[in-house]
Amino acid sequence: MGKILRMMQENSQERGKLQISVNSTVRNRPIAGARIAISYTGDPGNTLEELVTDESGQTQQVELPTPPLEYSMEPSEYQPYAEYTLRITREGYEPVDITGTEVMSGTLALQPVSMEPETPEENFDRIVIPAHTLFGEYPEKIPEDEIKPVDESGEIVLSRVVVPEFVVVHDGTPDDTTAQNYYVRYRDYIKNVASSEIYSTWSENTIRANVLAIMSFTLNRVYTEWYRNKGYDFTITSSTAFDHKWMPGRNIFENISRIVDELFSNYLSRPNVRQPILTQYCDGQRVKCPQWMSQWGSKYLGDQGYTPIEILRYYYGDNMYINTAEEIAGIPASWPGENLDIGSSGEKVRQMQEQLNTIAGAYP
Prior knowledge:
Blueprint: H1 2-11, E1 15-24, E2 35-40, E3 47-52, E4 62-65, E5 82-89, E6 96-103, E7 108-115, E8 125-128, E9 162-163, E10 166-170, E11 181-185, H2 186-197, H3 204-224, E12 236-237, E13 252-253, H4 254-263, E14 266-269, E15 281-282, E16 293-294, H5 295-303, H6 308-316, E17 321-324, E18 326-327, H7 347-362
Parallel strand pairs: 1-7, 6-8, 9-18, 10-12, 15-16
Antiparallel strand pairs: 1-4, 2-3, 2-5, 5-6, 7-13, 10-11, 14-17
Helix pairs in contact: 2-3, 2-4, 3-4, 3-5, 3-6
């Protein structure tokens, strides 16, 4: 498969662009002078391009071969994106390898890179980006009620809808105790999920509709403290059976990033319902979901000129509206029932410690 894809990329006349930004894990400072060798995934010995980051930690944009645009316009057995391997080196830092950076025809891919300062152990960071959800095989979503029950027990606890600064992503199924938890900025999380769930080549109205659905689903998890109320210490999972697909270290796309920045405080609501709607969806081809949004179906509606809200109402009903939430710092959590003081213990104290440790790591 890799050789066939590489031959198709080499023979294609179509191009996409890639730009890499490199930052230190210490204070997120940009790293100038980092060297990036770009090769086809599966052929790392054959370097296609070599780039160097500037003072802002960014490379110039480079054009690279991609499969034809038409492969992402209809469901296809042919992979619609090119895969590249990046080798990033810089004196004083541990080297990083990224396998599977996706580049699509006519769009700009943005690959973030975080480098650890060099240690005597000579560590090596390798990131492997899995297949896109519309091309690879992933578990289908387990259906849930779109509105979570609110009772007097205090189980649904946030007093208002908020946009968090961070979410905690559990990179696996809820009960997988070996899966790692990642503290991710909310905007970066949404950009990663949208780049993993839909194609950047689709119309902007389709992308907006899907981004709104992804954000509303995520803010429902935040508002209801869905997993924390079940005894877990995270906001959301990366399993498509339970939530959306999030891929640590993957690239995003400039147009998706721009749309997320434009819409980041929005969510979807119904009349007289306080919580964001848990807007579930499926691809609409391999998996059918009559009550939810079809990703491919939303693509075709966008092609026909439907607006984002028209696409959403087509699938979720006419009483769906776009609402706006307040942005707050940190990770929202409900009041534990008593003030935290010296000598306090328990889950809320541990949660606070985790957040302080994360802040200390970002701002040492």
